[in-house]
Amino acid sequence: MMGAAPRMSTADGLARDAFERYFNRPPRWIASAPGRVNLIGEYTDYNGGFVLPMAIEARTAIAAAPNESERIVLHSLALGETTTIDLSEPLTPEIRGRWTNYFRGVVAGFLEASIKPQGFDAVIRSDVPLGSGLSSSAALETSAATLLEAVTGVTLEPLQKVLLCQNAEHTFAGVPCGIMDPYISSQGRAGYAMLLDCRSNVPSWLALDDPAVTVMVINTNIKHQLSKSTYAMRRKACEEAARMLDVTTLREASMELLERHSGAMEEQALHCARHVIGEIARTERAAACIRRGDWAEFGQLLDASHDSLKEDFQVSCAELDAVVAAARGIGLAGGVYGARLTGGGFGGCVVALIESAKRTEIERAIASAYLRATGIKATIFVSRPAGGASVIEV
User: Which of 44, 141, 164, 195 is the most buried (most CB within 10 A)?
Assistant: First the structure.
């Protein structure tokens, strides 16, 4: 592979050290991939629309070394659990909700492509908060796929790798996710947000490097299990709406078309379609705002997105709304351009665009207001757009 060798991240170094402690030898490979925050474009990816995520600096790293067997021995530091994957037997999902399914699904994808790895020992170490809407699952799947590329010596085509990770989440984790999460985790670029056309699967890269503004992420610390949420129900409603409107996906629909058919549509399908059609338009406008540095309008689009997710798509919750209310209470005069829930909803995180110079005051004010409103301490961090998956040979 040409170009400079990837730098070792904090997660990489901690995974390396943990592997040495757990297996009493150094690793050969360290693969890692980032979580992501979706700036805008929620529930639009499986509707053929646009999404606008960026990779974050938090990563999931896997340190590994061959073990001269037909087994993968995998240890999770976060959970203190060890699992074994027998490569000589067909792979099937374990009990729904098990973290091992994400890794098993990726291994199964390689085996189905007739790419069989040798056995290895591995340790997983992640900085990406679980169940927070920052795509810890895609970070694990993508780091696993990147590790398997190194182990097998086979480099997948970029889109092939993304689709393999998406399929692992569908078939092994039971979550019918779109393509956004594995795409940005795999292909993210430092300093850039990605406008992804989910109909053509073609990305456009937007420089997000203005030092005057910062992306802030506020974790409500209310966790959700997405496979047990109403994600699948909302997706079905979108598909039903597209059928009623006689379009392939809601990307082809318009508000005018929706209005003409609204009287014949079931209420949930109508509301879901209204959110998606509006969100696709908001995402395209947000991309234009980034290109010209119009942060005030960008913030207005974030606010409108949250309102739509709350009222039409109905995936917000009291804790998310409390954070957004705190951000709006600070407002533009206090350095907050806008805020919205990000990810699947029902808990997790809010993303806000803020003035960099006012970060400390904003963080303090949001944390205080959220604690007063809910009795829960938020976890708040900022991130610049980070690079995608990488692997280091030790």
Answer: 141
